[in-house]
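Sample pair:
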Amino acid sequence: MPCKASLVDFLAINKTLDILDLECRKRPALRVAVVLTQTIAGTDFAQTIRKHLEKYGFPILKAELGNRVCFARAWMNGPSVFEGTGNPKAQADIEAIGAELIDLLANP
């Protein structure tokens, strides 16, 4: 479940996480994790939102998706940040999230 590192997005995700919590109780095999998106380096926004999300008990990925202009450019100019010259930092973000998700699924 993506959540932008902002108060507005945290407030908006509350009801969704409540619904997911109920569904997970009905279907224990259902896996849910939260990934913080559009995080801004050098600020404490992500850490603050992370602390508030912890009360739900869902895993919160350590990897985050940084707030990078290259993601918007990829939508306009190409299929992904992995195409063309790409963006190594954005690629590292995506790869770290993927690796963490695979690990969560492999080790329930």
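Helices lie at 7-26, 45-53, 69-77, 88-106.
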